[in-house]
Amino acid sequence: LSEFAVRIAESRLHEAVIRQPNDLAILLMPYFRQLAHEEFVVVLVDTKNNVLSKRTVFRGSLNASIVHPREVFKYAIRHSAAAVLVAHNHPSGDPTPSREDIDVTRRLVEAGKIIGIEVLDHV
Fold this sequence. Notes:
By secondary structure, the protein is α+β, with helices and mostly antiparallel strands. Helices cover 42% and strands 22% of the residues. The protein has one domain: Cytidine Deaminase, domain 2 (3-Layer(aba) Sandwich), CATH 3.40.140.
């Protein structure tokens, strides 16, 4: 059943418009809920925040995720995204952002400003 739920969620994601941060969280929850390890995904949007695509850019251990801006923006540039949203799960169930989460977000925002692709949110 969980694989079926994930497929439905994936199809809805590609038809979605992100209007607020909670929209992305709701769309990704079925995918993240099934994971026992951390994953970091990038969601590409156009100028009207229509979702273009989603890709996992890092798979980690039970409690660690390391992501490099190069991986996020390489994908965004290749697909001509206007902006990106990034998200990752916490398999521990504690959604509190870690120091590393905050640092990654800052690096991504800075890199996005340099290349002209805005980071809209990190969920």
